[in-house]
Amino acid sequence: MVLxxxxxxxxxxxxxxxxxxxxxxxxxRGQQVVGVADAIRMTLERNVQIKQAELNKDLAAQxxxxxxxxxxxxxxxxxxxxxxxxxFFDQVAGQPINGNQWTNSAGGSISSSVNLFxxxxxxxxxxxxKSQLESAATQVEKIKNDLxxxxxxxxxxxxxxxxxxxxxxGQLKLSQQQYKLDSIQFAVGNKTIADIAKSKNQVATDxxxxxxxxxxxxxxxxTLKQLMEMSPETEISLVRPNVEFSILKVxxxxxxxxxxxxxxxQPDIKKAAWDKDVxxxxxxxxxxxxxxxxxxxxxxxxxxxxxxxxxxTRQRLSFNEQLGRNKALGTTLNLTVPIFNxxxxxxxxxxxxxxxxxxxxxxxLAKNNLNKAVNQAVLDVNSAKQRYSSATVxxxxxxxxxxxxxxxxxIGMANSLExxxxxxxxxxxxxxxxxxxxxxxxRSKIIDYYVGxxxxxxxx
Length: 460
Known about the structure:
- The chain is an alpha+beta fold and 460 residues long.
- The chain folds into two domains: 330 residues, Outer membrane efflux proteins (OEP) (Up-down Bundle), CATH 1.20.1600; 91 residues, Single Sheet (Outer membrane efflux proteins (OEP)).
- The protein is 68% helix and 13% strand.
- It has a four-stranded antiparallel beta sheet with strand order 2-5-7-8, covered by helices on one side.
Protein backbone atom coordinates (compact mmCIF):
# COMPACT_ATOMS: atom_id res chain seq x y z
CA MET A 1 0.00 0.00 0.00
CA VAL A 2 2.87 2.37 0.85
CA LEU A 3 4.56 1.55 -2.44
CA UNK A 4 1.31 2.16 -4.32
CA UNK A 5 0.95 5.65 -2.76
CA UNK A 6 4.60 6.45 -3.55
CA UNK A 7 4.07 5.46 -7.18
CA UNK A 8 0.97 7.67 -7.40
CA UNK A 9 2.89 10.67 -6.05
CA UNK A 10 5.74 9.93 -8.43
CA UNK A 11 3.50 9.77 -11.50
CA UNK A 12 1.67 12.94 -10.41
CA UNK A 13 5.01 14.79 -10.14
CA UNK A 14 6.06 13.44 -13.51
CA UNK A 15 2.86 14.69 -15.14
CA UNK A 16 3.30 18.17 -13.65
CA UNK A 17 6.94 18.41 -14.70
CA UNK A 18 6.13 17.13 -18.19
CA UNK A 19 3.67 20.00 -18.50
CA UNK A 20 6.46 22.41 -17.62
CA UNK A 21 8.70 20.84 -20.25
CA UNK A 22 6.04 21.14 -22.94
CA UNK A 23 5.44 24.76 -22.02
CA UNK A 24 9.13 25.52 -22.39
CA UNK A 25 9.37 23.70 -25.69
CA UNK A 26 6.56 25.88 -26.97
CA UNK A 27 8.65 28.89 -26.03
CA UNK A 28 11.63 27.55 -27.90
CA ARG A 29 9.55 26.69 -30.97
CA GLY A 30 7.96 30.13 -31.00
CA GLN A 31 6.60 31.90 -34.01
CA GLN A 32 9.45 34.39 -34.35
CA VAL A 33 13.01 33.18 -34.83
CA VAL A 34 15.51 35.74 -33.54
CA GLY A 35 19.21 35.36 -34.31
CA VAL A 36 21.84 37.29 -32.39
CA ALA A 37 22.25 39.74 -35.30
CA ASP A 38 18.46 40.26 -35.34
CA ALA A 39 18.43 40.86 -31.59
CA ILE A 40 21.18 43.45 -31.91
CA ARG A 41 19.46 45.18 -34.85
CA MET A 42 16.08 45.40 -33.09
CA THR A 43 17.71 46.67 -29.91
CA LEU A 44 19.58 49.42 -31.76
CA GLU A 45 16.47 50.42 -33.70
CA ARG A 46 14.15 50.67 -30.69
CA ASN A 47 16.25 51.66 -27.71
CA VAL A 48 15.21 54.94 -26.10
CA GLN A 49 18.70 55.77 -24.82
CA ILE A 50 19.97 55.82 -28.40
CA LYS A 51 17.16 58.14 -29.43
CA GLN A 52 18.01 60.50 -26.57
CA ALA A 53 21.69 60.48 -27.52
CA GLU A 54 20.82 61.19 -31.14
CA LEU A 55 18.68 64.15 -30.04
CA ASN A 56 21.65 65.45 -28.04
CA LYS A 57 23.73 65.13 -31.20
CA ASP A 58 21.09 67.16 -33.07
CA LEU A 59 21.35 69.85 -30.38
CA ALA A 60 25.13 69.91 -30.82
CA ALA A 61 24.63 70.35 -34.58
CA GLN A 62 22.47 73.40 -33.87
CA UNK A 63 25.26 74.81 -31.71
CA UNK A 64 27.62 74.49 -34.67
CA UNK A 65 25.12 76.28 -36.91
CA UNK A 66 24.72 79.06 -34.35
CA UNK A 67 28.49 79.49 -33.91
CA UNK A 68 28.90 79.89 -37.68
CA UNK A 69 25.96 82.27 -37.88
CA UNK A 70 27.57 84.54 -35.28
CA UNK A 71 30.11 85.58 -37.93
CA UNK A 72 27.41 87.16 -40.08
CA UNK A 73 26.08 90.72 -39.60
CA UNK A 74 22.74 91.02 -37.89
CA UNK A 75 19.86 93.06 -39.33
CA UNK A 76 17.09 94.68 -37.30
CA UNK A 77 14.17 96.95 -38.14
CA UNK A 78 12.13 99.00 -35.69
CA UNK A 79 9.09 101.30 -35.63
CA UNK A 80 8.12 103.55 -32.71
CA UNK A 81 4.88 105.39 -32.02
CA UNK A 82 4.37 107.86 -29.18
CA UNK A 83 1.36 109.82 -27.93
CA UNK A 84 1.96 112.56 -25.38
CA UNK A 85 -0.44 114.91 -23.59
CA UNK A 86 0.75 118.20 -22.14
CA UNK A 87 4.23 119.58 -21.84
CA PHE A 88 7.29 117.75 -23.20
CA PHE A 89 10.24 118.42 -25.47
CA ASP A 90 9.58 117.15 -28.96
CA GLN A 91 12.94 116.06 -30.34
CA VAL A 92 11.59 115.65 -33.85
CA ALA A 93 10.11 119.17 -33.94
CA GLY A 94 13.10 120.47 -31.96
CA GLN A 95 11.00 122.52 -29.55
CA PRO A 96 9.11 122.30 -26.26
CA ILE A 97 5.40 121.66 -26.53
CA ASN A 98 3.10 123.56 -24.15
CA GLY A 99 -0.60 123.42 -23.55
CA ASN A 100 -3.27 120.88 -22.98
CA GLN A 101 -3.06 118.99 -26.23
CA TRP A 102 -2.12 115.62 -27.67
CA THR A 103 1.11 115.27 -29.59
CA ASN A 104 1.81 112.39 -31.93
CA SER A 105 5.29 111.27 -32.99
CA ALA A 106 6.59 108.25 -34.86
CA GLY A 107 9.83 106.89 -36.24
CA GLY A 108 11.29 103.95 -38.14
CA SER A 109 14.82 102.60 -38.50
CA ILE A 110 16.85 99.72 -39.83
CA SER A 111 20.25 98.78 -38.37
CA SER A 112 23.01 96.24 -38.74
CA SER A 113 26.11 95.37 -36.73
CA VAL A 114 28.99 92.96 -37.14
CA ASN A 115 31.99 92.02 -35.06
CA LEU A 116 35.16 92.50 -37.09
CA PHE A 117 37.60 91.12 -34.54
CA UNK A 118 37.22 89.48 -31.13
CA UNK A 119 40.49 87.74 -30.46
CA UNK A 120 39.58 84.82 -32.74
CA UNK A 121 37.03 83.75 -30.13
CA UNK A 122 34.26 83.19 -32.67
CA UNK A 123 36.48 81.13 -34.96
CA UNK A 124 37.65 78.99 -32.04
CA UNK A 125 34.06 78.66 -30.84
CA UNK A 126 33.12 77.15 -34.20
CA UNK A 127 35.97 74.67 -33.89
CA UNK A 128 34.92 73.81 -30.33
CA UNK A 129 31.29 73.21 -31.29
CA LYS A 130 32.38 70.98 -34.16
CA SER A 131 34.42 68.89 -31.74
CA GLN A 132 31.44 68.80 -29.37
CA LEU A 133 29.32 67.51 -32.24
CA GLU A 134 31.82 64.73 -32.88
CA SER A 135 31.84 63.92 -29.17
CA ALA A 136 28.05 63.70 -29.18
CA ALA A 137 28.21 61.39 -32.20
CA THR A 138 30.68 59.08 -30.44
CA GLN A 139 28.39 59.07 -27.40
CA VAL A 140 25.72 57.56 -29.65
CA GLU A 141 28.26 54.95 -30.76
CA LYS A 142 29.22 54.27 -27.13
CA ILE A 143 25.62 53.60 -26.10
CA LYS A 144 25.18 51.33 -29.12
CA ASN A 145 28.39 49.48 -28.25
CA ASP A 146 27.28 48.93 -24.66
CA LEU A 147 23.89 47.66 -25.83
CA UNK A 148 25.51 45.27 -28.30
CA UNK A 149 27.55 43.80 -25.45
CA UNK A 150 24.47 43.52 -23.21
CA UNK A 151 22.52 41.77 -25.96
CA UNK A 152 25.39 39.37 -26.59
CA UNK A 153 25.69 38.50 -22.89
CA UNK A 154 21.94 38.03 -22.46
CA UNK A 155 21.54 36.07 -25.70
CA UNK A 156 24.28 33.59 -24.83
CA UNK A 157 22.99 33.40 -21.27
CA UNK A 158 19.56 32.42 -22.58
CA UNK A 159 21.03 29.78 -24.91
CA UNK A 160 23.19 28.39 -22.11
CA UNK A 161 20.22 28.19 -19.74
CA UNK A 162 18.18 26.42 -22.41
CA UNK A 163 20.96 23.89 -23.01
CA UNK A 164 21.23 23.31 -19.27
CA UNK A 165 17.48 22.86 -19.04
CA UNK A 166 17.53 20.38 -21.93
CA UNK A 167 20.29 18.46 -20.19
CA UNK A 168 18.30 18.44 -16.96
CA UNK A 169 15.36 16.97 -18.90
CA GLY A 170 17.53 14.04 -19.96
CA GLN A 171 18.84 13.65 -16.43
CA LEU A 172 15.29 13.55 -15.08
CA LYS A 173 14.28 10.84 -17.53
CA LEU A 174 17.29 8.80 -16.45
CA SER A 175 16.34 9.19 -12.79
CA GLN A 176 12.73 8.29 -13.51
CA GLN A 177 13.78 5.14 -15.32
CA GLN A 178 16.04 4.18 -12.41
CA TYR A 179 13.23 4.82 -9.92
CA LYS A 180 10.91 2.60 -11.95
CA LEU A 181 13.46 -0.21 -12.05
CA ASP A 182 14.19 0.11 -8.33
CA SER A 183 10.49 0.03 -7.54
CA ILE A 184 10.12 -3.22 -9.45
CA GLN A 185 13.18 -4.66 -7.72
CA PHE A 186 11.84 -3.51 -4.35
CA ALA A 187 8.53 -5.23 -5.02
CA VAL A 188 10.30 -8.56 -5.47
CA GLY A 189 12.60 -7.98 -2.49
CA ASN A 190 15.84 -7.23 -4.34
CA LYS A 191 16.07 -3.60 -3.17
CA THR A 192 15.73 -2.03 0.25
CA ILE A 193 13.62 0.89 1.35
CA ALA A 194 16.85 2.91 1.50
CA ASP A 195 17.44 2.23 -2.20
CA ILE A 196 13.94 3.45 -3.05
CA ALA A 197 14.43 6.54 -0.89
CA LYS A 198 17.70 7.37 -2.66
CA SER A 199 16.06 6.85 -6.04
CA LYS A 200 13.12 9.08 -5.16
CA ASN A 201 15.44 11.73 -3.83
CA GLN A 202 17.38 11.75 -7.12
CA VAL A 203 14.13 12.22 -9.09
CA ALA A 204 13.07 15.08 -6.82
CA THR A 205 16.52 16.69 -7.10
CA ASP A 206 16.45 16.50 -10.88
CA UNK A 207 12.91 17.89 -10.95
CA UNK A 208 14.01 20.84 -8.81
CA UNK A 209 17.03 21.45 -11.05
CA UNK A 210 14.75 21.43 -14.07
CA UNK A 211 12.34 23.94 -12.57
CA UNK A 212 15.18 26.26 -11.52
CA UNK A 213 16.81 26.08 -14.94
CA UNK A 214 13.47 26.66 -16.65
CA UNK A 215 13.01 29.80 -14.56
CA UNK A 216 16.54 30.94 -15.38
CA UNK A 217 15.88 30.43 -19.09
CA UNK A 218 12.60 32.34 -18.99
CA UNK A 219 14.20 35.17 -17.02
CA UNK A 220 17.08 35.54 -19.47
CA UNK A 221 14.60 35.40 -22.36
CA UNK A 222 12.52 38.13 -20.71
CA THR A 223 15.63 40.28 -20.22
CA LEU A 224 16.48 39.84 -23.91
CA LYS A 225 12.96 40.89 -24.92
CA GLN A 226 13.22 43.96 -22.73
CA LEU A 227 16.48 44.94 -24.43
CA MET A 228 14.76 44.57 -27.80
CA GLU A 229 11.77 46.62 -26.54
CA MET A 230 9.60 43.60 -27.32
CA SER A 231 6.36 42.65 -25.61
CA PRO A 232 6.92 39.93 -22.96
CA GLU A 233 4.03 37.94 -24.47
CA THR A 234 5.81 37.63 -27.83
CA GLU A 235 6.97 34.06 -28.39
CA ILE A 236 10.48 33.86 -29.81
CA SER A 237 13.06 31.17 -30.37
CA LEU A 238 16.80 31.70 -30.43
CA VAL A 239 19.31 30.47 -32.97
CA ARG A 240 21.98 28.35 -31.36
CA PRO A 241 25.48 28.52 -32.83
CA ASN A 242 27.40 25.57 -34.15
CA VAL A 243 29.40 25.25 -30.97
CA GLU A 244 32.06 22.80 -32.10
CA PHE A 245 32.73 24.72 -35.34
CA SER A 246 32.82 28.03 -33.48
CA ILE A 247 35.29 26.72 -30.93
CA LEU A 248 37.57 25.40 -33.68
CA LYS A 249 37.64 28.89 -35.21
CA VAL A 250 38.73 30.56 -31.97
CA UNK A 251 42.31 31.68 -32.44
CA UNK A 252 44.97 32.67 -29.96
CA UNK A 253 45.05 36.46 -29.69
CA UNK A 254 47.89 38.82 -28.95
CA UNK A 255 46.81 41.32 -26.31
CA UNK A 256 48.99 44.12 -27.72
CA UNK A 257 47.56 43.72 -31.22
CA UNK A 258 43.99 43.57 -29.93
CA UNK A 259 44.57 46.70 -27.85
CA UNK A 260 46.06 48.65 -30.77
CA UNK A 261 43.08 47.71 -32.93
CA UNK A 262 40.59 48.50 -30.15
CA UNK A 263 42.06 52.00 -29.80
CA UNK A 264 40.87 52.75 -33.34
CA UNK A 265 37.39 51.32 -32.91
CA GLN A 266 36.21 51.83 -29.35
CA PRO A 267 33.89 54.88 -29.01
CA ASP A 268 35.04 55.49 -25.43
CA ILE A 269 38.51 56.34 -26.72
CA LYS A 270 37.18 58.44 -29.59
CA LYS A 271 34.90 60.41 -27.27
CA ALA A 272 37.71 61.07 -24.79
CA ALA A 273 39.89 62.39 -27.64
CA TRP A 274 37.15 64.72 -28.90
CA ASP A 275 36.46 65.96 -25.36
CA LYS A 276 40.17 66.76 -25.00
CA ASP A 277 40.04 68.66 -28.29
CA VAL A 278 37.07 70.68 -27.02
CA UNK A 279 39.02 71.51 -23.85
CA UNK A 280 41.98 72.70 -25.94
CA UNK A 281 39.71 75.00 -27.94
CA UNK A 282 38.28 76.41 -24.71
CA UNK A 283 41.79 77.60 -23.78
CA UNK A 284 42.05 79.51 -27.06
CA UNK A 285 38.60 80.99 -26.55
CA UNK A 286 39.53 82.14 -23.05
CA UNK A 287 42.79 83.70 -24.30
CA UNK A 288 40.79 85.67 -26.85
CA UNK A 289 39.45 87.75 -23.97
CA UNK A 290 42.84 89.51 -23.72
CA UNK A 291 42.54 90.93 -27.25
CA UNK A 292 40.75 94.15 -28.29
CA UNK A 293 37.31 93.84 -29.83
CA UNK A 294 36.29 95.77 -32.97
CA UNK A 295 32.62 96.21 -33.91
CA UNK A 296 31.02 97.98 -36.86
CA UNK A 297 27.45 99.32 -36.78
CA UNK A 298 25.31 101.02 -39.42
CA UNK A 299 21.78 102.42 -39.12
CA UNK A 300 19.27 104.25 -41.28
CA UNK A 301 15.99 105.83 -40.18
CA UNK A 302 13.54 108.70 -40.22
CA UNK A 303 10.77 110.09 -38.00
CA UNK A 304 7.63 112.24 -37.85
CA UNK A 305 5.97 114.59 -35.33
CA UNK A 306 2.54 116.15 -35.43
CA UNK A 307 4.24 119.42 -34.34
CA UNK A 308 6.90 119.35 -37.04
CA UNK A 309 7.18 122.73 -38.91
CA UNK A 310 9.33 124.40 -41.53
CA UNK A 311 11.53 126.86 -39.63
CA UNK A 312 11.58 129.32 -42.54
CA THR A 313 7.88 129.40 -43.44
CA ARG A 314 6.61 128.29 -40.01
CA GLN A 315 4.22 125.98 -41.83
CA ARG A 316 3.42 122.51 -40.62
CA LEU A 317 5.06 119.77 -42.60
CA SER A 318 3.11 116.83 -43.90
CA PHE A 319 3.91 113.24 -42.98
CA ASN A 320 5.68 112.52 -46.29
CA GLU A 321 7.65 115.76 -46.17
CA GLN A 322 8.94 114.96 -42.71
CA LEU A 323 9.95 111.43 -43.69
CA GLY A 324 12.06 112.87 -46.49
CA ARG A 325 13.60 115.69 -44.43
CA ASN A 326 14.26 113.68 -41.25
CA LYS A 327 16.01 110.67 -42.75
CA ALA A 328 19.47 109.89 -41.33
CA LEU A 329 22.28 107.40 -42.00
CA GLY A 330 24.80 106.66 -39.26
CA THR A 331 27.83 104.41 -38.91
CA THR A 332 29.89 103.51 -35.85
CA LEU A 333 33.25 101.81 -35.51
CA ASN A 334 33.74 100.74 -31.91
CA LEU A 335 37.10 99.53 -30.55
CA THR A 336 37.14 98.08 -27.04
CA VAL A 337 40.51 97.42 -25.39
CA PRO A 338 40.43 95.32 -22.20
CA ILE A 339 42.67 96.82 -19.53
CA PHE A 340 41.44 95.33 -16.29
CA ASN A 341 38.28 93.33 -15.76
CA UNK A 342 38.74 92.02 -12.23
CA UNK A 343 41.01 89.15 -13.39
CA UNK A 344 38.11 87.56 -15.25
CA UNK A 345 40.21 86.68 -18.32
CA UNK A 346 43.02 85.32 -16.15
CA UNK A 347 40.64 83.07 -14.25
CA UNK A 348 38.92 81.92 -17.46
CA UNK A 349 42.25 80.88 -18.98
CA UNK A 350 43.34 79.11 -15.79
CA UNK A 351 40.04 77.20 -15.61
CA UNK A 352 40.29 76.24 -19.27
CA UNK A 353 43.80 74.87 -18.73
CA UNK A 354 42.61 72.86 -15.74
CA UNK A 355 39.74 71.53 -17.86
CA UNK A 356 42.23 70.45 -20.51
CA UNK A 357 44.31 68.57 -17.94
CA UNK A 358 41.14 66.86 -16.71
CA UNK A 359 40.29 65.86 -20.28
CA UNK A 360 43.81 64.49 -20.73
CA UNK A 361 43.46 62.46 -17.55
CA UNK A 362 40.05 61.15 -18.67
CA UNK A 363 41.49 60.08 -22.01
CA UNK A 364 44.40 58.29 -20.34
CA LEU A 365 42.02 56.62 -17.89
CA ALA A 366 39.85 55.41 -20.79
CA LYS A 367 42.94 53.95 -22.49
CA ASN A 368 44.09 52.31 -19.27
CA ASN A 369 40.67 50.76 -18.68
CA LEU A 370 40.54 49.51 -22.25
CA ASN A 371 44.03 48.02 -21.93
CA LYS A 372 43.04 46.19 -18.74
CA ALA A 373 39.79 44.96 -20.30
CA VAL A 374 41.53 43.73 -23.45
CA ASN A 375 44.25 41.89 -21.54
CA GLN A 376 41.59 40.34 -19.31
CA ALA A 377 39.54 39.33 -22.37
CA VAL A 378 42.55 37.66 -24.01
CA LEU A 379 43.35 35.77 -20.80
CA ASP A 380 39.68 34.80 -20.42
CA VAL A 381 39.36 33.35 -23.92
CA ASN A 382 42.53 31.27 -23.50
CA SER A 383 41.37 30.12 -20.08
CA ALA A 384 37.92 29.30 -21.46
CA LYS A 385 39.43 27.08 -24.15
CA GLN A 386 41.47 25.21 -21.54
CA ARG A 387 38.44 24.89 -19.28
CA TYR A 388 36.37 23.52 -22.17
CA SER A 389 39.04 20.94 -22.92
CA SER A 390 39.18 19.91 -19.25
CA ALA A 391 35.38 19.87 -18.96
CA THR A 392 35.14 17.60 -22.01
CA VAL A 393 37.54 15.10 -20.47
CA UNK A 394 35.82 15.37 -17.09
CA UNK A 395 32.38 14.67 -18.58
CA UNK A 396 33.60 11.72 -20.60
CA UNK A 397 35.23 10.30 -17.48
CA UNK A 398 32.15 10.92 -15.33
CA UNK A 399 29.90 9.39 -18.00
CA UNK A 400 32.08 6.28 -18.17
CA UNK A 401 32.24 6.03 -14.37
CA UNK A 402 28.47 6.38 -14.07
CA UNK A 403 27.79 3.67 -16.64
CA UNK A 404 30.23 1.34 -14.90
CA UNK A 405 28.70 2.04 -11.49
CA UNK A 406 25.20 1.51 -12.85
CA UNK A 407 26.18 -1.86 -14.29
CA UNK A 408 27.62 -2.86 -10.93
CA UNK A 409 24.51 -1.55 -9.16
CA UNK A 410 22.19 -3.52 -11.43
CA ILE A 411 23.92 -6.76 -10.51
CA GLY A 412 24.09 -5.89 -6.81
CA MET A 413 27.80 -5.11 -6.59
CA ALA A 414 27.30 -1.39 -5.79
CA ASN A 415 24.92 0.25 -3.36
CA SER A 416 22.49 3.08 -4.05
CA LEU A 417 24.77 5.69 -2.46
CA GLU A 418 27.55 4.86 -4.91
CA UNK A 419 25.16 4.95 -7.86
CA UNK A 420 23.57 8.28 -7.09
CA UNK A 421 26.87 9.84 -6.10
CA UNK A 422 28.20 8.79 -9.50
CA UNK A 423 25.06 10.10 -11.19
CA UNK A 424 25.33 13.44 -9.42
CA UNK A 425 28.96 13.78 -10.49
CA UNK A 426 28.00 12.89 -14.04
CA UNK A 427 25.17 15.48 -14.06
CA UNK A 428 27.45 18.17 -12.67
CA UNK A 429 30.10 17.37 -15.28
CA UNK A 430 27.48 17.71 -18.03
CA UNK A 431 26.39 21.11 -16.73
CA UNK A 432 30.02 22.22 -16.46
CA UNK A 433 30.67 21.15 -20.07
CA UNK A 434 27.67 23.10 -21.39
CA UNK A 435 28.71 26.23 -19.53
CA UNK A 436 32.33 25.81 -20.61
CA UNK A 437 31.59 25.49 -24.33
CA UNK A 438 29.35 28.55 -24.43
CA UNK A 439 31.85 30.45 -22.33
CA UNK A 440 34.44 29.92 -25.09
CA UNK A 441 32.07 31.44 -27.66
CA UNK A 442 31.20 34.34 -25.38
CA ARG A 443 34.83 35.15 -24.61
CA SER A 444 35.76 35.01 -28.30
CA LYS A 445 32.90 37.37 -29.16
CA ILE A 446 34.19 39.81 -26.55
CA ILE A 447 37.39 40.03 -28.60
CA ASP A 448 35.28 40.70 -31.72
CA TYR A 449 33.47 43.42 -29.76
CA TYR A 450 36.72 45.19 -28.89
CA VAL A 451 38.22 45.08 -32.39
CA GLY A 452 35.02 46.16 -34.12
CA UNK A 453 34.08 42.88 -35.81
CA UNK A 454 30.35 42.23 -36.38
CA UNK A 455 28.74 40.12 -33.66
CA UNK A 456 27.36 36.99 -35.29
CA UNK A 457 27.35 33.24 -34.76
CA UNK A 458 28.59 30.46 -36.99
CA UNK A 459 25.56 28.30 -37.77
CA UNK A 460 27.07 26.07 -40.44
